[in-house]
Structure formats: C-alpha cells, structure tokens
Amino acid sequence: MRGLNFISLSMLLVFTTLQEAWSRGDQPLSKIAIHKAIVDLNGQAYVKASPTILGLKAQTTEWVTLEFSSPKPSADDWIGVFSPANFSASTCPEENPTVYPPLLCSAPIKFQFADYSSPEYKDTGKGYLKLHLINQRSDFSFALFSGGLSNPKLVAVSNQVAFANPNAPVYPRLAQGKQWNEMTVTWTSGYGINEAGPFVEWGPKGGDQVRSPAGTLTFDRNSMCGAPARTVGWRDPGFIHTSFLKELWPNAVYTYKLGHKLFNGTYVWSQQYQFRASPYPGQNSLQRVVIFGDMGKDEADGSNEYNNFQRGSLNTTRELIRDLKNIDIVFHIGDICYANGYISQWDQFTAQVEPIASTVPYMIASGNHERDWPGTGSFYGNMDSGGECGVLAEAMFYVPAENRAKFWYSTDYGMFRFCIAHTELDWREGTEQYKFIEHCLASVDRQKQPWLIFLAHRVLGYSSDASYAEEGSFEEPMGRESLQKLWQKYKVDIAVYGHVHNYERTCPIYQNICTNEEKHYYKGTLNGTIHVAAGGAGASLSPFTTLQTKWSFFRDFDYGFIKLTAFDHSNLLFEYKKSRDGKVYDSFRISRDYRDILACTVDSCPSMTLAS
User: Distance (Å, rounded) from C-alpha 102 to C-alpha 173?
Assistant: First the structure.
C-alpha cells in the first residue's frame, strides 16, 4: 500500500503540473485520438485534391483545393492532412503503447472540420476546403473522418499531392556566429550527405560570390525522450544544414542562396536572399532590436489546428515583416512554436518566419515547451516539451553557445551586449550557468557597449501575472534571489522575459524598491534594472492579478512585442507595439553619458575604496 500511495502522490504531482501547463491551451493535435481510429471506408464517400503537383515555379508554399462528399454527413466530421501520404499501420513503431498496433499511428500535420467552408455540409454531404501547404519533404493525402476527434472513423482518402521537388532547400534561418563578423545560415532539406553536398553561395551585393560548405545534422525517433514526440507526433525532420559566413564587413549588404550539388553533377538552388552584416562591437550607428517570447505559429488557411490557441502569432509575424526594413536583429526568447512533440510543426513555424529569419538574425532562447521533460536534467520535471527535451530547438536553430544543449550564450550587436539565460536549467548561485551569467555581465566594456540587456524565458525578475501573484513572489520561484545582486552590480539596463502571455514594464528596481520614479524619460543613472514581460507575441493570453504593486508601471492584456532603438552611446528608445496594428502603446527613453554608468549606486561599487 505504501508503494501505491507513493505512486498516487507522484501522479497527482504530475497532473497538477500538467494542469498548470495546459491552462494556457492544449496542443490542438493532441485532441485527436488517432490511436483509436478505425476503418469505415464508404464507397460513396470521396475526397479529391487539386492541383496534384505543387511548386512548379519553385514555390515553397501552395494552396490546395479539396472537394469531398459523404453519404452520412455530421457536424463533427473533419479532414486531416497527412504527410507522408501513406499513414497506415505499417509505419507504427513497435513501442507504441497499445496492445495491438492501431490502424493509424501518425497524427495529421493539420486538420479542419468539414463544414468550415461549407455550412450546408451536414445537410448536403458535400463540401470544399482550401488548405495552405508548405514543402515538408514528402507527399500529402487528405482523409475524411467521421466520429469527431475522440472516436475517428476513416471514411475516405484523397489522391496524393506532392511538391515538384520535395527535397528542395527551404526556410533559411540567419543567426549571429561566435565572432562579431560571422553570420550563420541554417536551413532544411531532404538531401542527406550521401546524396548531395550542401553549401551557401554568397558575397557582397553586386560583387563576386564564393561558396561556403555546410555541416549537416539530423536525428531519429530514438533521440526523443517520450510521447508524443516518440510516437504519434513523430515525423522525419529531414536534414538540417548550417553554413558559417566569415570575415564580413560591418553593415555591408550580402546576397546568398542555398545550394546542393548532387552526386550526378547537377545543382539544386533556393531563391536568392540578402542580409546586412552586424556592426562592429561598440560601433556608433543606428541599431534596432525586436524582442518577444511565446509567439508560436498559426495557420494562414484558418485551419483550426491553432484556433483559440495562438491567435496573435500571424499578426506579430505580419507586423515584423511590414517593418522589416527598420529591424536589425530579432530575439525570440523561448516557447518557439509550441510543437509539444508534434515534429511537423517546426517546419511550419520556420516557413512562417522565413521572410524575417532569412533577412535578419533570428536569435532564440529555450523555454519550457522546448526543453522540459521528467528525468532529463531539466530544472522543472514537467512534460511541456511533449518529449522533445530540447532536441528540436537545438537542431533547428543555431545559437552561439559553447554547448547548444545548455543553450545559454552571449552575443554582441554594435552598442548592445545581450546575455541570454536558459531558465529550464539551474541558474542559482554556485551553478555553471550562474558563473556564465556573471562573466557575460562583467566582461562587457560599457564605454563601447553601454546598453546591457538580460534575456530569459521564465520571469526571473518581476511580473504581476496571476500565476506568479498567487505564489506570492511575483516571479519564478527562486528567480531573482540569486541574480538581482548581479544585475545591480553590473548595472543591467533592461531584463526581458517571456513565459507569461502579456506585457508589463516595471520601474527601475532593486530588491522590490523602485530606484527611480520617472516613467517615460530617464536621464542619468537608473540605479536599478527595468524588468519587462514580453510573452504576448502569439500564444493565448494570461491574466494579471487584481493586486496593485508600486513597481508595475504599465500592463497590457494583449498581443505585442518590444523594440529597442539605440541612436548612439547615450540615447536609447524603448517601445512596446501591439501586434494588431504595429502602433506604439508604451515607451520610454534613456539619456545618459558614460560617467552615469560608472557612478556608484546601492550595491554596485565596493563599500570601501583606497580613496575613502
């Protein structure tokens, strides 16, 4: 009995954790009980998809039209999009946790209810849908199900649809390298190193082009830590390539395109892209940074895969694309796409952000929905990653970390120094990460790089989110206790977090006390750090507490992102923009000289000096 009681208590703790995680929205694909699906094919039912060949002009996205019919229509009938097109039981892994292998063991990559575009479907049995597909290295089929999501019955399967070259190189993601004059390009393809050699052809815009080889990574089902990533959510990720473009001239514009040389001597190319190289650390020039967390992805076709879950995602993406000429670098600080173990969603996310990530560095941090899984070393023992346990984030995006599995790193952009923490691993005093954070903050030359920014996923500083207020700490438990003395000692200007799906800005603060009462224009020494929650980029919003705190200057229960603009070494503009229209709804300025950074404040200088 003691053993049973222990198990019951353990399960209760797990479910409590899950309930907290799920309160912000389930992964919609998890609502489909695909392992319960049965065959109920009806000769009078059909699904027809057109066109059958996509990407004839090298497009990486296309619209497909479905016509379908069922002699026994119902309001809960739905269409599932499957890729690969063959989703039969022959593909089931042996470890699938059922007594007998199910008919279906692969979740669809998206789904939509049959009456979405045809309200009369439940009466006439006839309907149509327009669905948006991206090139994901395999063919597609469309299946009509009755029985709703909980008891699916396969009624009809369509003809197969495929891109002309499903293996084509797609969705480049730029990121800063470990050196200031290095840019990395990461992309996905269906070509392994035994089929073709990957490279990037690049050079100054209008100048001579050179070729830089790319390294290739992939992973298999055994790299996943649990279900659904290891079972119904598994999908072959293809091959992820990264090339390092070195010795760039500061602020110069370069063009590039992705290439694969097949072993028969022919080439496969992507379209041409361009980027602007990063400024030299300390360079005095206009520098514009966008920061947000928890954006996730959404579907342009309205498929209800993410209805009521990440509604702000497309708006945020749209506004960033509209203003891209005024953005130099982007930081997405955790909870990247909420795949939660459904691997296909990472391709769909990289397709969504391609116009941004192919043009400016797209730097990420790791969040709970990328890393957390019991028994894998994550600081939190929940199941938020859906069994991915960090593998997807580490493979799909490059970060200039010494060890990408640890995912903490620093990066310089002109007058900015960014220190990016990994909140899913221990950050407390005495840990390896704590030592990294202190080194990152201590090693910057503030005369050359006056703007010191701390980034992390979970709120290690201050937040009025209801979940934190209920705990009484207004922070991630044990969040600032170790770190606030570092922020104060090294005079961090702004700390930005995700995780809570809203926007909030504090006063400059240290040890729960506002060190400056000004709200919109800071002149001279801040005397503390301004903390910002910017996790409202797309995922379902989370409410604030009704309690009022003196340190909370601005709150917004809406979707948005922040932008920092450094005009020079003395002037910085902070803006909060809403995703719905891109307009500014909160802002402040900092104006100061180098001597203001050097000035001693509480706990920022030794208590005794030789002079004293």
Answer: 37
C-alpha 450/C-alpha 491 separation (Å) is: 10
For residue 450, say if its preceding peptide bond is cis, omega within 30 degrees of 0. Answer: no
Q: What is the dihedral of CA 371, 377, 380, 385, to 10 degrees?
A: 20
228 close to 108: Cβ distance less than 8 angstroms: no
What is the spatial order of strands in the sheet that 61-69 belongs to? 46-50, 61-69, 126-134
Closest by CA to 211, choosing from 253, 241, 244, is 244
pLDDT at 9 over 50: no
Q: What gap in Å lies between CA 333 and CA 79, rounded to an integer?
A: 34
Decide: 303 and 251 in contact? Cβ < 8 Å. Answer: no
What does 537-578 look like in DSSP terms, one character per residue?
A: SSSPP-PBPS---TTEEEEE-S-EEEEEEE-SSSEEEEEEEE
Q: Identity (one letter) of the amino acid at 148?
A: G
Could you tell me if 107 and 340 are in contact, meaning their C-beta atoms sit under 8 angstroms apart? no
Q: What is the pTM of this model?
A: 0.93
Give the C-alpha separation, 344 to 450, whole Å.
41
Which of 579, 494, 573 shows the shortest CA–CA distance to 535?
579
3-state secondary structure labels for all residues of 100-159:
CCCCCCCCCCEEEECCCCCCCHHHHCEEEEEEEEECCCCCEEEEEEECCCCCCEEEEECC
Strands (E), 165-252: 170-176, 183-189, 196-204, 210-217, 239-245
Contact 244, 184 (CB under 8 A): yes
* Exposed / middle / buried, residue 130 (Cβ in 10 Å: 0-12, 13-18, 19+): middle
Q: How confident is the model at residue 405 (pLDDT cuts 50, 70, 90)?
A: very high
Q: Hunting for tokens 């650390």 — which residue is that?
A: 281
Alpha-carbon gap, residue 544 to 500, rounded angstroms: 9
d(CA 314, CA 356): 13
247 backbone φψ class: left, alpha, beta (φ>0; ψ -120 to 50): left
Nearest-5° Cα angle at 232, 227 to 235: 105
Give the β-pairing of 451-456 and 416-420.
parallel
Question: Which H/E stretch holds residue 486?
Answer: helix 479-489
Contact of 244 with 198, CB cutoff 8 Å: no
For the residues of 246-289, what is the DSSP string, one character each? -SPPTT-EEEEEEEEEETTS-EEEEEEEEEEPPPPTT--S-EEE
Check whether 263 has a pLDDT greater than 90.
Answer: yes
Of 83, 44, 455, 123, which Cα lies nearest the Cα of 290? 455
- 318 secondary structure, DSSP code: H
From 275, 273, 30, select the one nearest 171 (Cα to Cα).
Answer: 273
pLDDT digits (tens, 9 = 90+) for 91-145: 555 544 433 444 577 899 999 999 999 999 999 999 999 999 999 999 999 999 9
Between the alpha carbon of residue 72 and those of residues 93, 124, 147, 538, 572, the distances in Å are: 33, 9, 11, 38, 63
Alpha carbons within 13 angstroms on the beta-carbon side of residue 178 total 7
pLDDT of 570 strictly over 50: yes
